[in-house]
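Researcher: I'd like a structural prediction for the single chain below. Treat it as a standalone chain; there are no partners to consider.
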Amino acid sequence: MSPHAAGRRRVHRSVATGLPLALAAVLVAAGTATAGSSGEAHVVRTATLGEIPLGTFSNALLPGSVADDHGVKLGGIGSDIYPAGRRGEYWTVTDRGPNGQIKVAGKKRRTFPVPGFDPAIVKIRVSGDSVEVIDAIPLTTSSGKAVTGLPDQKSRDEAPYTYDAQTPLAYDPNGMDTEGVVRAGDGSFWLVDEYGPSLVHVSARGKVLTRYVPKGLALTGADYPVVEALPSILLHRKTNRGFEGLALLPGGDLVMALQSPLQLPDADAGDASRTTRLLRFSPRKKAVTAEYAYRFDPVNVVDPGEDDTSELKISSVVAVGRDRLLVEERTDKAARLQLVELGRTSNILGGAWDDDTTSPSLEQLDDPAASGVPVLSKRLVVDLGKVARVPGKIEGIARVDRDTLALVNDNDFGMTDGAGAFDAQGRLIDSGIKTTMVYVRLPKKL
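Model: Treating it as a single chain, here is the predicted structure.
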C-alpha cells in the first residue's frame, strides 16, 4: 500500500470521527427581501473554513512531511473549485502552500515557512449548516514522494528561504504552484501550475502522470515524466504569474488561462499590457490545438480604486457550454466575470504572435483588434465588486446550477508579508482572513 493511499484512509477516519479534519462552518442564507431578489446578483449562502493545523493535515496524508507548521492552519484551498458530482460536494486544490515576502538588505526574499508542505486536492462537502473535508489526495511523484510547493529552477523562479528569510532552501524540480483543477471522466485530475507554467495530469490517487511544459524549459531532475508540449512563447511568463485558471469543455478539451500578460519584449511591456492568452489542449492528441488573445478591461474599470495595470489577472475559467467560458478578471480587491466564446477564427496558435522576435509583440499593441488580432469578444455577466458579502481575492468558481455560482477565495493560509508575520517564537500571526465560500445567484441564467 502506497503512503498516500494510507494517508487518504486516515483522512476518512478522522472526518468520520469528527477529529481535527472536521470544519467549523457557518452557513447563512441571505434574506429573500433584498435588493438582489429584484434583479441583481446577490449572495444566498456563505460558508467559512474552520481552523485545521497544517501539520496535522499534511502528516495525515504523508506521515513526517511537516516537522513544524509554525502555527499555520490549512488554507489556500480556494485556488480553484470543481463540482464533484453530488450536490454540495466540490474538489478544490491548494496552491504551493504558505509563503510570503520579507525585505532583507533592501531586496525582497520569498519565504516558505512550511517547506515540506505537499500541495493537495481536497474534497469538501457543503450540507445544511456544515462543511466537511471528506477526502484529501496528496500530489506525489512516480516513486511516491511529495510534490512540494518549492520553486523548480534557479534560472527562472524566486529563491526560496525559511520563514524568517535568513536561510536559503533548496530548489525542487518536482515542485509545483498548483492553481486550477478539473476532474476527467476516468477519475483522473488535470491541474495547472504557475512555475512552468505547466499543465499536469494526475491519477485518481494523486500520482503525477505527466507534466506538460513549454518547449525549451529544460526542467531536469523531476521524479515524474516531463513533456515539452506547450508553445515556447510561454517561457516569457511573469514570475509567479503562470497558468491560473483551468476549464474542462464538454467535448473533453481543456482551456488554461495565463494569469497575466507575457513579459514581451520585457517586464515593463508585460506590466503595462492588457492582453493575455488562453490555450486549448486536447488530452486525446496530447497537444495544444488553439491559442486565443484575451483583452482585459482597464484596471480602473475592474477595480475603481486601482490604477496599476499590472494588478490585472485571470484567476478562474469555467466552461458553460461547448465553446463558451466564464472568465474571471480581477485584482486582489475586485473581480468581474465575462462570458466569452472560443470561435475558430480566433485561433492565433503558431502565428507571428508566438514568435518572440515579432515587434511590436502582442503584449505591446495598444489596440490588438485594430492590428488584425482576433481578440476574443466578451460580455459582462456580473461585477462581483458590486455584490455585497463577496470576499476579496476570489480564485475558484464553479456552477451550482444555471443561475447560481459557487465562489471561493484564496486566504493565503493566513500569511502576510513582512518581518511581523511571525512572533518571537516563530509562530504565525494569522491575518484573520478565512477561506470563505459564497453562493451567488445571478439575475439571468447562463
